[in-house]
Design a protein that fits this description.
single chain; alpha/beta; Alkaline Phosphatase, subunit A; 2 domains; 7-stranded mixed beta sheet; 16 helices
């Protein structure tokens, strides 16, 4: 089943509601169900993001009497592409992908004539770290929501980013550290917005696949962890989301399709299930025919114009670098197939970034610690 992004009922809507609660209008639609909960005066708003914890995986591995399911408000949409490198900047900026411009794991930067892994700040081909500057931050940097919240509240609310990649220098490297840090902040007798990010269960699923016992164990652990945390926090609203879901996938390699490969200016970018193609001028028309001959019913191939007209990256002012990053075509996976340049012996079992309902649908869980369903 194909699932297109619904930005009016999405992870962007979640952060829009939270920003609205603090008095900041980011120009995007909020979520009514969350707005109603936010009519109360809370000491703490805790937004937790569990990477890869898709709605359908959560429902499959947790019974109806489990804590997260009892507090599940329903499914919401990820962004497009449905990948961490696009979703995390959406949450951290309060902007749509068309506005912030982070469109995939690797993006082509013409000043460097290279695909660069934006979250790692490394060259994709070599894995070499770029020293001296963060390229994505330099070209498509954004003001984060932590600064926005503290500014709009005149410092009355303290904003915290608890993750491996903290923007507020509050780094944690384990669940225990995360729990201690959240509890410490939430009980500091101040008003707080706390954002906590975990790489799991995404990492497990990438290596084992979605239907593995380790994934089930991890999600059950997350359920217990959040339940325990909710008992320790007073006057706190806990909001839990994911950035995307995953699907088990098999890989096709472009070096097996020499006709397609010769039509390309350079190696594709973005993701293996949301593939961005720069096509040689002489082949712009014939590329579509050749691609669909090879991958019909496996991918939807759209032109740059079609992508922008359909608002697949959301609405808002288009980032000045979008036209640099976006090629002539993008192929969005609608099956279990991923597309790589060549066989690099990557041991990845489950992937994301496509337009399947499993990848695009994530949970919204809302827990008021005063009235949560135990």
């Amino acid at each position: 089943m194909i699932k297109y992004p619904d930005y009016d009922n999405s992870i962007l809507s979640v952060i829009s509601s939270i920003l609205k609660y603090y008095g900041y209008d980011n120009g995007h639609k909020t979520l009514e169900v969350l707005d109603k909960k936010l009519q109360k005066d809370y000491d703490n708003i805790l937004l937790m993001l569990f990477d890869g914890m898709g709605y359908y995986t959560l429902k499959e591995y947790l019974e109806s009497d489990k804590f997260l399911i009892k507090n599940l408000s329903g499914p919401i949409s990820s962004v497009c592409p449905s990948t961490t490198a696009c979703a995390i900047p959406t949450i951290e900026s309060g902007m749509s992908p068309i506005e912030h411009g982070w469109l995939g794991w690797s993006m082509y930067f013409k000043d460097y004539d290279a695909n660069i892994c934006v979250l790692k700040n490394t060259y994709e081909d070599t894995g070499k770290k770029i020293k001296g500057e963060n390229i994505a931050r330099k070209y498509v940097g954004y003001e984060n929501v932590f600064n926005k919240i503290e500014k709009v509240t005149n410092g009355e609310v303290k904003a915290h980013d608890i993750s491996l990649y903290s923007d507020t220098n509050e780094f944690v490297y384990s669940y225990n550290q995360m729990l201690r840090k959240i509890t410490q902040i939430a009980n500091n007798r101040e008003k707080n917005f706390i954002y906590a990010y975990s790489e799991e269960p995404d990492i497990i699923m990438h290596s084992t696949g979605v239907d593995h016992e380790y994934v089930k164990e991890n999600i059950r652990f997350l359920n217990s962890m959040v339940h325990e945390l909710s008992q320790k926090l007073e006057n706190t609203l806990i909001v839990i989301i994911a950035d995307h879901g995953l699907v088990d996938s098999k890989v096709e390699y472009l070096n097996k399709y020499p006709k397609l490969k010769k039509m390309l200016i350079r190696k594709p970018s973005f993701e293996s299930r949301a593939v961005n193609f720069f096509v040689k001028e002489d082949y712009v028309e014939s590329f579509k025919l050749e691609f669909e001959k090879a991958f019909k019913d496996k991918f939807i191939l759209l032109t740059k114009k079609e992508i922008l007209e359909r608002n697949l990256f959301g609405k808002g002012n288009k980032n000045a670098h979008i036209d640099e990053f976006l090629g002539d075509y993008m192929a969005f996976a609608i099956s279990d197939v991923a597309l790589e340049w060549e066989n690099e012996n990557k041991k990845i079992t489950a992937r994301h970034a496509g337009l399947t309902k499993e990848e695009m649908t994530v949970p919204l869980i809302i827990i008021d610690t005063k009235e949560c369903k135990n």
